[in-house]
Amino acid sequence: FAVIALLFLISARRRNGFAGLHDLASGTRVIRKAAYEARPPLEVEEPPLPASQATPQIGPYYVLDRLEKTEAGEFLLGYDARLLRKVWIRRLPEGAPPAPASVRGLGRATRLRWLGGNRAVGENWDAYEAPAGRPLVALAVRPQPWRSVRYWLMDLAEELAAGLKDGSVPAVLALDRVWITSAGRAKLLDFPAPGTGGAPLADQGPAGAAPDFGAARAFLNQLAVAMLEGRVVDAHAARGKTPAAPVPLHARKFLMALPTSRDLEDLTAGLKPLLQKVAFVTRRRRFGLVLGCALFPILMAGFTLFGQAMARRFMEQQPDIMPLHSCLTRLTALERQSASQDNSKQRQALEVYIAGRFGKTISDPATWTGPAAATIDEGLRAKARQIVAKYPNPSEKEFADAKAVAEPLASRPDMAIFLGGGSLLPAAAFQAGIMTLLLALLSILCALAFRSGLAMLVLGVVAVKRDGSRAGRLRVLWRALVTWLPFLLGSVALVTRFMQAGPAVFQDVSVVLRTAPGLALPLFAALAIVSALLPERGIQDRLAGTWLVPR
Questions:
Q1: Are 483 and 546 in contact (CB under 8 A)?
Q2: Fold (CATH) for 134-201+210-276
């Protein structure tokens, strides 16, 4: 199978998309499908609509509620009865200048739409659309996931790129001037958002100085640091800093390059492909990690159950084949030892025992046509015929004396564990345990060599530290040891017990192997449930101080 697979791949080249012979013959190609990632919505509470026409009015709008009052003015929530929509009414002090033309003409989805305004004695206000949502700084009380922050960065980067071209960038770029809508879209405001208290969060800069690309880049980096770390940070503290948060490796690469981006077009070009990449370890992928660790042991147990069931069936049809094979194998081993020690009496006893017990079976041609006889190769068959020819009719006394010596030599109590009795579970448990032991050792070696386990490599998952940097080899090794150490210790104890001689010991091992499947199944189910509930930080990750993120 390996040779056939390699033959199909001899035509694979980078220039042809690594197409195999079957791809070239059928005119098809295998591609990697981009993951569909929707913009995460934001849960908000909708205030009630006006109850009657007696509600006070400002211009054509009914006033529903006062949102905020500061030294710079007052925010009111209004209602447009004609168009059936809510509006923000920003009441300003006397003498405030009207909204500039660049603000009144904005129609981009990432800016507030100006609806109207008035400048008169006792009436100084501007009305804007009132999108449902929350101010950005209100979300900074806890770290926000990368799957949401990346869309906010993209919205603001595109808006700043357009604003720098037409001169509509707000005079101040600060975190309190960003509004996150219920649809998960970021809007850039020209004033502090309602609900932020109106206190400035950024240095206003020299009068008349408009933000340039450097200020826009620093603002985006400040937003990334604040949202991913879950704290409001000023522009100076965030300048040139990479957010310390467990994010995907592709996101960390972008965030490290963000403070040194050449222009906003370069920045948006690097961010746009990340919107369709998996941003977190899903429950399905986490369950895949658990299933990947259990798949090979389960398959080995299944194959063992099938094989042992067939072997038991063959043994029932030809019960003498397995004991004969055991005796011939033991005799061959003694013949190889004859050069170093004198075991002629034991070899003779085995030969007499084979001739006396299995003589008719060996001489019957039908014996060698059955499926069970396939376990005895031609060399052992020839040896068996020679023994029958050498001892054609051993006496009862000769056979009894040979039996007393031969049966202890040829007996295999370990095979009784696997093929004897009514249950096939000991054999399946033993084979699954061996496969799990090999898998555990290989996973520990991979953790030390590649800083990742086998299933993690296949599913594109890596372990990172709290600050988002990739976990080192020793930390990943500790994570692997925490995962596999209970099984390794149990396996060492069982093997140590198994190596001891005596039928009673083998019986104890058989009992352990019979009960192991019943214990392993609920343990695996519990591990799968915990992994599904904690996809990014399982128990072993919490003990090792790691987070699981996509590559």
A1: no
A2: Transferase(Phosphotransferase); domain 1 (1.10.510)
- Phi and psi angles of residue 86, each rounded to the nearest 5 degrees, phi first: -90, 150
Nearest to 111 by CA among 98, 123, 100, 120: 100
The CATH T-level fold of domain 57-129 is: Phosphorylase Kinase; domain 1 (3.30.200)
Q: What is the pLDDT along the chain (551 residues), one digit of tens a residue?
A: 567 767 777 788 878 878 888 888 888 887 776 666 778 888 777 666 654 566 788 888 989 888 888 887 889 999 998 888 899 999 998 888 898 888 888 889 999 999 999 988 888 999 999 999 999 999 999 999 999 999 999 999 999 999 999 888 998 999 999 999 999 999 999 999 988 876 555 554 444 567 889 999 999 999 999 999 999 998 888 888 999 999 999 999 999 999 998 889 989 999 999 998 988 888 888 888 888 777 777 787 777 777 777 777 777 777 778 888 888 888 888 888 766 667 788 888 888 888 888 888 888 888 788 777 777 888 888 888 888 888 888 888 888 888 888 877 776 544 444 444 556 666 666 677 777 778 888 888 888 888 887 788 888 899 999 988 999 999 999 988 888 877 777 666 666 666 554 555 555 555 555 555 555 666 667 777 777 778 778 888 888 889 999 98
pTM for the structure as a whole? 0.73
Tokens of 268: 């948006």
Domain regions of the chain by residue span: 57-129, 134-201+210-276, 283-300+423-550, 318-411
Report in angstroms the alpha-carbon separations of 268 from 160, 180, 288, 411.
11, 19, 33, 75
